[in-house]
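Sample intake sheet
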Amino acid sequence: MHLAVDISLRQGGFTLNASIDCWSSALGVFGPSGSGKSTLIRVIAGLAKPDSGYLELDGDVLFDSENRIWVPPHLRGIGVVFQDARLFPHWSTEKNLRAGMTLETTGMFSFEHIVKLLELQPLLKRSVNDLSGGEKQRVALGRALLAHPRLLLMDEPVSGLDAKLKEQILPFLARVHRELHLPCILVSHDLPDILRLTDRLVLVRDGMVCGQNTLEGLVTQRGAFDMMRRSGLMSFVSLEVDGEPVRAGVRPDEIMLANRPVEGLSARYRKPGVIVRLIDHGPTILCLIDTDEERLMADITPDAVRELGLKEGSPVWCFFKAGAVHSFD
């Protein structure tokens, strides 16, 4: 997916000035509440019309103020899943799902396949009023997919759910992207959620795009790194917890480094690796470390770098305590 945006939109006392040009099949839009993320998504979907600028998706111009081009929402081929599921409360699950169908399709976007993909079969005859928050979001996701969109926008799809329900719905979001090969844009103020599901990030703050790149590209920028570090920046690791394999997150400041294996530490987990990059952020230095399975980020002081003799290519051992592990499985 290629997305090119350069728009300005004023709504009351808030102004969004967004400029984006990126290729990504799974794009994350991250920023604090009130920064303009949802407004940006509404512009892409055609639910809000900018005052000026242009918007292009995969070579199709959807908005161009200079040439007076405006493609209405129903002609854009874009599906949207909102924070609140926005289902018809007096209808069954099946009727809500079929409301999204513009025509009978076969294959990956058929009714039968979407129901199977999202595990909705047991819910079809139930009233949506009897569904949990996570189940309602799965129905809303299915309804959007049954319109066979070329792009799926998800605006804070799990922010209204508790931690348990969120962990139930996030694997379905990943499954949709992976199995349907459908480009997705995920909006969230929860950075770990974004990092788990996307391969490229757009950072939004105060109505402006303040960064756009891969995670590794963004952490080289001091402002972007500080913004993400304050918001739960994590590396993702494969671990064994209580005998079970899990996928977990560890913050950069929770990883300790040594230039040799060390015994007698209280840190439960250890992984050998090689430093591939040192990024100087002033008070701290961010170390990018390749292990056999993943790339980790460790934030340590310049003094520690000097004392350990670390440089690019140096072998290191990464240690972190069980209490530093944020399990997602």
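Comment: Residues 235-327 form a domain with the OB fold (Dihydrolipoamide Acetyltransferase, E2P) fold (CATH 2.40.50.100). The first strand starts at residue 2 and ends at 11.
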